[in-house]
Every structure is written in structure tokens, then in C-alpha cells.
Amino acid sequence: MIASMNSELAPTEASTAWRRTLALVACGMVGLLTACAGSTDTGDTANTADSTIVPTAAAEQVASSNSFSVPDDTHADADDGEYAADGATTIALADGSSTIDGAGASVSGDIVTIAAAGTYVLSGSLTDGQVVVNSTGEGKVELVLDGVDIASSTTSPVVINAADEVVVILADGSVNTLADSAASSADDDAEDAPTATLFSMADLTIAGTGALDVIGASNDAISSKDGLVVLSGSLTVDAVDDGIRGKDYLVVEGGTIDVVAGGDGLRSDNDTTGELGWIRVDGGTVTVSAGSQGVDAVGAVDIADGVLTIVQSEEGIQAAAITIAGGAVAITAADDGLNATAHTVDGGGEQVEDGVFVAVSGGTVTIAAGSDGLDSNGSAALTGGTVAIAVQGGGGGGNGALDVNGTLTAPGVVTVDTNGVQAGQRVTVTDTSGTVVASFVATSSSASTVVVAEGIGSGGTYSVYAGDSSSSTSTDGLTEIGTVTATDAAEAGTGRGGGRRP
């Protein structure tokens, strides 16, 4: 199914949507909000929060007051994957006999220390050793991994204690492996303890065209106590706790990333006021299987492009502010699919959290959830793209496709009978003229699916098709499975209960 989803929902051209402020995307732009078929409250008398219809100007004001914003840029440069081999220091790793040719590095037993900015090309293996970066001066440290296999039985095999900035470059055609041990002795409670197989105290960038396998047997796989950016490369991550973690921010610009994690798949956890951790996916193909959240940020999650497939999670995407402006997002979650919360409301609470929201203005989002499909403790604005939500078991018990404590802004919604539709098959909705208004690949087999799209208006009649087809713009190869009438979002499987909070 993963391969099917990735081939069917390929990334679009690089988007610049992330360069807008999150507030502008949140309100879907004034014109889009005005064009919505309806701005409705949830219509649930059990909701004690003040959930009301908000005019466009007021919605814009709410969005602009949001404090969970995504900055325009990061520490990374577009050419960080490039390096000059001439003049680089070469390090040949070997148990008990590592050698160095060039300046800036030293070896003691099976510990290699890099003490200055520059380019270092590493090859070979250490069965129980470590590479340490301790560069206190200015300038980038470039670690070029050209066929390395580094393991440690007692600590993190690669530790960046100090550096202005570090770029890990995966050499073209190379396969590299980093692994720690379940017996690693890092003190997880110590503030600067190396708690990941690839651990950095400095801004970290991963780039290049090679491959990197990272095994986190004791804790996280890849972690930076600053910012972390993945520009390119093929990454395979397997961790007992979090897969890839950037404290201040985590950004994926490209590459192919496969994450298996006992904790969160992608995480950014800075909880300092005014510096809340954020995550952006702006390209590449990311597949996550997580024991906790698939994508988890204290502040904001922004998806502008690329393919994000969460095949297993407790909650799919969690943050105070969730913005999806493009790309293809497929989520399977035991609990909520999208969960917007600032964690100021106890589980089951109906209070509206100020500034908390979900905004979808583009792309394709498919959700298979065990609880709420979309759960926001604040507002939600679905003003573009396609959102398809299947709640396992059809909802009930306070669960539903759309659970919004505050204002829900959305066009019309259709509830499609998808009984018999298999995961991986395409579902397409057309209007009376035959124009495709929504098309998505089913994430799961479910009796019904709630579909929200800009071209669906409340009261309109639509035809639904399903089958095996790669086209998202026609019904060729599909079979008509029914006709439906769109309703207001408030009538389409709205659940109550506030969602579950960790």
C-alpha cells in the first residue's frame, strides 16, 4: 500500500507556500474564506464552548493573532550537499588502526575527534568506536560519509559536542550505517546528554545522494538540540524512541525518508515561549510508522509539498497549529488523525484554546482514524485541496470526522458510502457536469468516508466513482458506486469529546 500511495500521489513542483506566514495560510486568504460555501459552527448542543459563525474579517483577525508561526528560513543552504574533495582531510576508520590524512582531526584508540571547521571524508568501519566533533571556532564542519559503518556498545557513535554548524553529506553511491546499543550509558536526564545515535548540539543538516541507515537501540535515532534540516539523501531510521528530532525545528526539503519509531516519528519539542518547536515538510517522500505521534511539534506543523505517509501512529499529526497547503498526506492513526492542541485543555474538555487551529488550503489529505479524523481545540479552516476522512467503526461514542471546539470554516461536505472500496483504490467525486471536484486514494477499507473539497457545495448533487486508476482528473477506469448530496460540515460526522491529550 505504501508503494501504491507514493506512486499515485507524487510530489508537485517545489512550492513556495511555506514562505508565507502561517497566519495568512491559516485563514486560507480572505478571498478563499469568502468563497467558502459556509462558515459554520459545529451545531452540537453538547459543546459548551463559544462556537459561532465568524465573518471573514474576524477570522482573519483570529488567524493573525496566532503565535505559533513558522519562520521563512533555516540555517541550511541549498548547496550544502556539495563539497570539494581537494584539500579535504580523509579519515580511514579501522578497529585499532584508524588513520588521518590532513589537518583538524586526531585519533586515540577507536575515538576520532574533529576539532576545526573544514571538510572531512570518512570511510571504513568501527565495530565499537566513536566520531566526536568538538569545533569551537567559526565555520561549517562537513562530515562526508563515504561508506562508513560505525557502532558503539556504550554511547552514541557520532556526537557533535560543539560546532558553528555541521553538514552530514552522504557521498554519491555510498551506503552508510550508524548504530548504538541498548546498553548505551547516556544519562537521559542530563541536559546535554547524547541521547541519539547521531546526536548534535549544533545546527545539523543532512544532504547528499547516498544512503544512511541509523539504528537507535537505546533512545532516538537522529537528534539535534538546535535546528535539523534534511535536504536530500536516502534515510532509513529505526529507533526505540523518537526517529528524527530537531529541538528548535525539523525541516524536510527533499530525499527519501523511512522512519520506524517506538515514540514519535518526526518531533520538534522546544517549549520555550516565543521559540516553540516547529516542523515543515516542503518536499521529498517521508514514510512513518510510530508508536506515538507520527509528526509531533509543540508549536506548528507546516506541510507545503512532498509526500507524507503515516502508516501507523497513535495520533497522526499533532501541534498547536497544523497547516497543509500542498503535497499528499496519508494518515493512519489509532486515535486522532490531525490533533491541534496547545495542551491547556484536559481530555474531554470543550474549551477553545486561543490561537490553536487546523488550516487546509491545498494538497490531498486522507485520514483513517480510530477516534476523531480532525480534532482541533481551537478553530479549523478547510478552504482548498481535498480532505477525506474515514473514522473506523463509523464514529460514535463522541468520535467523528470533524471535532472542532471553536469555529469550523468549510464548504459543503459529502459522506460517501465506501463499503467495498479497498485501501489503495482511487475514489473520485464529480459534479453534475462530470467535472472532478475531489479525488483521492483510499487509506483504508471503511464503510463511509467524509470528503471536504473546495468544489463541493452544500446542497449540491455529486456522483462517486471507485476503482483502480492513477488519474486524479478523470473517471477513466473507475466504476460509479453512488450519488450523494452535500451537506453542511456541521452535519457530517462531527464528534465531541475534545480528543485525548498526552
Notes on the structure:
The protein is mainly β and 502 residues long. The chain has a domain at 69-298. Helices cover 5% and strands 45% of the residues. It has a 22-stranded mixed sheet that branches. Mean pLDDT is 84; it is low at 1-66 and 495-502.
Question: Quick summary of this structure?
Answer:
The protein has four helices and 39 strands. It is mainly β.
Write the layout of secondary structure elements.
Layout: H1 2-8, H2 22-26, H3 30-35, E1 39-40, H4 56-64, E2 89-93, E3 99-101, E4 105-108, E5 111-114, E6 118-126, E7 130-134, E8 140-151, E9 158-162, E10 165-170, E11 175-179, E12 196-200, E13 204-208, E14 211-216, E15 220-224, E16 227-230, E17 234-239, E18 244-246, E19 249-252, E20 256-261, E21 266-268, E22 278-290, E23 293-297, E24 300-312, E25 315-319, E26 321-324, E27 328-333, E28 338-340, E29 357-369, E30 374-376, E31 379-391, E32 402-404, E33 408-409, E34 413-417, E35 426-430, E36 436-441, E37 448-453, E38 461-467, E39 478-485
Parallel strand pairs: 2-6, 5-7, 6-8, 7-9, 8-10, 8-11, 9-12, 10-13, 11-14, 12-15, 13-16, 14-17, 15-18, 16-19, 17-20, 18-21, 19-22, 20-22, 21-23, 22-24, 23-25, 24-26, 24-27, 25-28, 26-29, 27-29, 28-30, 29-31, 30-32, 31-33
Antiparallel strand pairs: 1-33, 2-3, 4-5, 31-37, 34-37, 35-36, 35-38, 38-39
List keywords for this structure.
502 residues, mainly beta, 22-stranded mixed sheet, 4 helices, elongated
Largest sheet: 22 strands, mixed
Indicate the low-confidence ranges by residue numbers: 1-66, 495-502
Task: Decide which structural class fits the backbone.
Answer: mainly beta
Percent of residues in helices:
under 10%
